[in-house]
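Researcher: Batch entry, complex prediction.
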Amino acid sequence: MSRFASRKYRFLVIAYGLAAVAAIWEIGGDIHNDDDAPTPELLREARQYTMDYSKVLKNLYPESHRANYYRGVTALYDNPPRLEEAFEHFQTAIDTGIKSDEQLSYHYAVTLVLLDKDSEAIEEAVHQWRWNFPRSTSPDPRTYKNMGLPTKGPSDESNYR
Amino acid sequence: MFRAGYIIDRRQDAFWFIGLPFLAIVAALASQRWLSVVALASCGLWITLPHHFAGWLRTYAIPDELRYYRGRLIAGPLVIAAGTLLGLWIAPITLLLLVTMWDHQHSLMQQHGFSRIYDFKAKTGAPSTPRFDLTLMWVLYVNLFLTSPFFTEFWVRELYRYQLSISADAVRMVHTLSWGITLAYLVVYAGHLVWCVVNGHRLNHWKYGFIASSFFLWYYVSWQVDSLLVYGIAHKIMHGVQYIVFVVFYLRHKFNQEEQAPKSDSSSRSPHWLQVLLQPRHVLAFVALSALYALFFQLIARQPLSEFGFGLNNFSEVYGTPIPEHGMQTMSEEASYHMYAGTIIYTTQLLHYYIDSFIWKVRDKKVQSAL
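Model: Structure tokens for the complex:
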């Protein structure tokens, strides 16, 4: 290839060269699992990474909506669940006005259902979740009434179990 | 010391290139307050897709441009489509990372390109200014990416996803280092400006206004709001609208030059339909064609119809209450799609019935005259 031609394609080569390095890392590192049922070892690893990441975030931005979300979800999936505490953290996060966090929106609604809060508050929380995330495939939070905590939601909450 | 030069003209630059970022922030904050998260996808649909369309017109619809960039315009789509397919198949996280990072680079380079045009048009800056400008852009943007709460969360999470742990103290060190480099470079850049003036090179203050307003948008939404919705909408408006405006201006200018040039080979001239479409009096036709492109793209990609209306037309809300005792969930996305289809089918049917009820009256003199 002439020098002129190689200059013309240089950018494409650099972009995809870097992507190839990242792809090798991704494939070699088993970062994602194609099986529906990941091994307990992989789940443990994923849980650890999420826990570590959330600790860093809580340390860096203790007042952020995401830090409050992680505090809430940790309380929610504790054994036994600390529902009131989870609610307080989720409420603090919601009060920042954040809308684009589906995990927060969903777990806030689930917590209201589990705490059997008044129906108006539950309806409003579910409405906000559905309004903002109409494509969500998660079950309606109200279906968790008398059923306990969700095992699968829109998030990495299983990492906290 | 200063010499003004404009991308389009003084009035239009003040609106599209200096004022627009501030309007975009207001629009994004209003969306956060009154619209749903779907508005972000709607902005992608009504702004980002049309800006792609403008780019296709500027390349593939102009024979001269197509010939000039032929190799890359043919090989590029093939390589990129194959890479995307491969990425989706074996390395989806990497594909997402590539799209995200390239988007950042692309956005930055667009603003740099506009700032280069300011110097080109005003004949300002020294021969070394482009390098200083590009470094300024990168330093400011990388600092934004590394230090803002909005992006810090993103890159720390990605590091953890790639199993590269980093402590909070290490992140703080990165922040401090980044700010140190940024402030040091700002001093170097100020020195370059002084050097330019001392050596008789003029400066285009419009360029600096443009750079300042662009970075104000990015820094403000990343530091003050920390919301994907606000950042996404503000950024899409600034990036997409400025691009469309510039493409239209560029092509109009190119067509004018073709008109004034001596009669050349007709195969190298821009198509007549495009010249007509981009005339100022046909701006609505251009907007309509761009919207049509977005519409087709949305339908081909089978994306939700609620995105057409910024989430205000969400049919899944109609049957929003589940009946858990019967194992019934709320309306699915597919079912809500059928609601849209039903609305269109029944509305057109009823409209046909209604219009026919008054346009065919034989007793009407107007109807009689055409019989």
